Amino acid sequence: MPVFWEKVGLLGPVYRLVSRGFSDGDIAQRLNIGEPRVQSCISWMLHFLQFATRKELVLNASPAPRVIQRPEVHDEKAWENDKQLVAANG
Which of 15, 22, 65, 68 lies 20 to 30 Å from 38 when distance is taken between CA atoms? Predict the structure, then answer.
């Protein structure tokens, strides 16, 4: 039987905001829910994923760093433009 936040689809949005480093209060404000509900979602995720700390949850939820591979073409100007574009869009 699904718990309340599974029914209303809160786990995904809370998980994404936790990965960005938002506090419980900030998450509650952004999702227009109470802070205790956010804390309950996070507690459930910690238990379900078998993490001991919020830091582990954040590290697990954060996207892996992007690695820029050098293209096979020998166009140095295009390569520099691509690097600048990626750096600007982070």
Answer: 65
Q: Which residues contact 83 (CB under 8 A, 6 or more apart)?
A: 68
Cα-to-chain-centroid distance, residue 12 = 9
C-alpha torsion angle, residues 15, 55, 4, 17 (rounded to 10): -30
Long-range contacts of 8-13 (CB under 8 A, 24+ apart): 10/37, 10/41, 11/41, 11/44, 11/45
Global confidence as pTM? 0.61
pLDDT digits 0-9 by tens, 13-63: 898 888 888 999 999 999 999 999 999 999 988 998 899 999 888 888 776
